[in-house]
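thread: overnight batch results

M.L. [08:02]
morning all. the overnight job finished for the chain we discussed friday. pasting input first so we're all looking at the same thing
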Amino acid sequence: MKRNLAIIIVLSYLLITCGCAAVVLGIGAAAGTGAAYLSGKDTRIYDSEYHQTAQACMETLKSLKIPVSQTSADELKMTIQARRADETPVYIEVVRTGLGRSEVGIRTGVVGISELQASSQIHDALKERLKLKGHELAKTGTTKSPVEEPEQPPEILTKRGPGRKTDEPSTIPFARRAPPELTIFFALDSNELRPSEIAKLDNVAEIIGQQPEARLTLNGYTDSIGSTEYNLMIAAGRASSVKLYLVAKGVNPLRITVVGKGAMDFVATNESEEGRSLNRRVEIQIDKNP
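M.L. [08:03]
and the structure it wrote out:
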């Protein structure tokens, strides 16, 4: 009894003086699970290619009926925000750690201390899904799936724009302009996908799934604020976020080209926030006959 009381006192002291991380690290060590717990996050390494792991995470949440509310991704890391039926938030971070290896961190709840079991259950479901994908590849006699190609940097074709700062007419004919359902909009200085835009991408993934020969070009644009170099970078980052989400939904990454165009081909004035918000976009071009 005295020993248990002493443990409680020590844990309380750690919580007050060192924060949650020290306590959670202690819980992980005592459990002997082999997982790393930091601030309530259960982190594990998987022998699985980055794109395939990201796709498996999305599929796992769907199978568990945990709807995704927001994603953010580039070619190195993907973060997924979701919410369970009881409104408990779920945060997943997928990190490329090397050729054929990925790190997945899962935190359930605002802090995660009391929800480590739920995070562990999501990991278990993810592990089974990745194992199932491996069996499916073995059955077809294929050594690599389209998303398991050797790690390569994304194809980013940066085109230096003139940096127009007024509502000059676009150089792209209106007939070639992407329709609203193929235009993904972004907040200022952000490459995060908003829920309304995720719904569009879900529809695109479904369409592409029915057209196995089609190829996609993702053209990233910005408003006129910022330097040319910065706008080229964030334009490519936004297009990469769209690519990562589509790959996670099952689209072959080899069928997707990312183009960072930057501050050019404006569709609205840059003199108002409303106009600038329409210029911060990624246009999806579908080529059905490559």
